[in-house]
Structure formats: C-alpha cells, structure tokens
Amino acid sequence: MTIKRPRGTNDFLPGETVRWQDLENKLHRLCRQYGFEEIRTPIFEETELFARGVGNTSDIVQKEMYVFQDMGGRSLALRPEGTASVARAYLENKMQALNQPVKLYYLGPMFRSERPQAGRYHQFHQFGLEIFGSNSYLADAEVICFAWDFYTSLGLNELDLHLNSVGCPKCRPLYRQSLQEFLAPQKEQLCTTCRERFERNPLRILDCKSPICRELSVGAPVMLDQVCPECEEHFRKVRNTIDEAGIPYILDDRLVRGLDYYTKTAFEIQIKGIGAQSAVCGGGRYDGLIEEFGGPAIPGVGFALGLERIFLALESQGIGFEKEPQLDIFIATMGEAACGKAFTLAQELRQKNLSVQQDLLGKSLKSQLKSADKQGARFVIIIGEDELQSGLYQVRDMAESFQELVPDEDLLSFFCDKLGK
Length: 421
Ligand code: AMP
Known about the structure:
This protein has 421 residues and is an alpha+beta fold.
C-alpha cells in the first residue's frame, strides 16, 4: 500500500517553491522597509497558550486544534495561528524592556483541522506581523497600509478592505447587552452554534455565515453607534489616515472579534474570484492580550495573511511570476578524467556566484547537450580527452549559437565578463 500525504496538506514541487520563495522574499523586503524584524517561535506550544490567546470559546480552540500529549503527559498543540506565540515570546524574552514599539513578523506553517476545500487546508502558511507597545492610531494605520501595499504590489485587483471598531472593555459590555436584548426574542431560531454563542460570545453571531442568523441579525444595533468617545476618536483618526493614504475601505458592522482582549480596530481584506474562502487577511488591535498572558498592560496591533490564498488570487487574476533565473553554465564531459576536471571547475565558477551544473549520470554528449538546453543553460563547456590535453575548452553560447575555444586559465575571467558577476 502506498502512503499518501495527509488530507488537507500539500506538496509544493520545485516549479511552485520558486514562486513561494519569490513571495516570501517580497514579504521580507517589505518588512525591512516598514521596520519589522523576524521572530521564529516553535511550531507547537502548550495547549493552554492557545486556549487563552485565541480563546476557549473560539472555533479554533474548540474544534480545530491538533492537540497531543508528550511523553511527560503535557498537553501540546500544533500552532493554529501566530499571534499567541509571538505575544508569549515577547513577554518570556522581556521584550517590554526594549525600545518600544517592538515590531515583529513571522512566516510559517499553521495547523487547523477545518473541513478542507479550495483555499482551506489542514496545514497552511501564514505571514503575520505585530506592533507591541503603541496605542497610537498610526500603528493601526501602518498595519493596514502594509497589508494593502503588499497585495497591490503583487498587482492584485478586486480587493475589498473591510473595517470596523469593536470598542473596548468600557463600551463593549453595553453594546453586548443591547445586542442580546435585540436577539433574545429570536434566540431559539438561531443556528446551534449561535445559540451557544448567545451567552458567551454574542458578537460572533453577527459574522455567522448561516442565512437564518444573517436574516435574524438584520437591523441589530451597530457597535459603531455605541463606542465610547475614546474609541470613536481613535477610529476616526485611523480612518482619516487611511483616507489620506488613498486606501478605499468598506465600513462593515458585521466584522467582529468575540474576545475581550480585542479592542478598537478590526479589519479584513477580501478578494473576489477565489471562491467561498475569500478572506485573504485579517487583523486588528488587541490591547488586552499581553495582560491576558499575565504581563503588563501593553497594547498591540497586527494582522495575519494566508499565503495559499494569494496564489489562488494571483492565478484567478492571471498574474504570472518573474521567470526563474536560468542556469549560467552546464559542463558537458566525456570520460572519467573530464568529470574530475569539471567538478573542480564547477566549484571555482560557483565561487564567482555563477550557477553551474555538470552531468551526474554518465550520459552521452548528445543527451548532455539536450539536458543543458532543457535547463535553459546560457553556456555549455565541453571537456573531453583532447581538451584536457590542449588546455583549450570549447565554450558554446546557447543563446547566440556560437562556439569558441577558451584557454583553461582564462575561463573564470571569460565567464565573469560574459555574465557580469
Ligand atoms: P485568521 O487567523 O483566521 O484570521 O486567518 C488569517 C488568514 O489566514 C485568513 O485570511 C486566510 O488567508 C488564512 N487562513 C486561515 N485559515 C486557513 C486555512 N485553513 N487554510 C488556508 N488559509 C487559511
């Protein structure tokens, strides 16, 4: 019986991994421009971290986490998202003692056991960033601009930025109450999940996808009408800054986050044309998270984006990638002695930053030349008995269909000249 990869996971093959590297490099570059530094945290953490950081009442913690016990009986979980780990690492490594704000980013696999479908996997990849230590509206705006900048720099269109404020521990309880009062008469008609949410997490009823819950919540009170003056002022400034940056957005009163430590700004970017899973990133402010983890009251704001969905969006919008860099030199050999010479020569040429390959299968000269062509080699060096004796090598320029003899001692300078490295 052959073993296949687990459901909801992907193998990314060489043609695809170059595109991943390209996308990742773009993210690393943009982070440098915005002043974010990379942090790498473990793939698994204590389960309790996510129970607290993502929330016990969330779908992620209740239904979607991969939880296991280690040999010592400790409960561990594969990370379903990145913010909880980064907040833990910030506190554990006393980053509050550093110059604030601390701007961090991460990139890597996440794990959720949701029902797989296009754009939804058990193992997927997220890029995310967090700013700790600033409660300024500018930090919210910077995070939103980063996300927008990134998608637009890829040439993506049909982007919708949804924006809302979820208030703060001062104003949200009142809103929560008015929402419950509004929904109470229809409580029994809500879907099973939302009936459970009614007490614990009523705001989440607003973003339930069930048509019945959608219908029942039409006309529900709107958070933005009830935010306190501080939250209102903060949101007004975030919107002004985004307006000035020329980024269009949709005010979306259904965009909510159910947990107490989420505060003020919430945002999501959606892309049309990639199916039901149209959210490509989500984020917002979480001023209560570090305190939730037992730390001081340090504000935070951030977002996470899924990389797989970017590829779906690029494909659906017909956006290609820059072509893979071609092979500089292929060394074709005839005979054992030539192979040895080719091996040393390849090492020397690689030291000059050139990409070089030689035959590893003992193929005929004709098939070696075919391989070189398939790999897009710019030059082929041919080494056989005669060349070894004379010290003169045939160098074929594949683009120009041109051949010349180059003395052994001139080979390095010849290629450095030709290939400009
Ligand atoms: P979230 O942490 O749920 O706000 O997700 C942030 C982003 O990660 C989403 O907007 C998606 O782009 C991506 N994402 C979340 N869950 C999955 C999944 N199961 N498969 C693929 N991408 C996902």
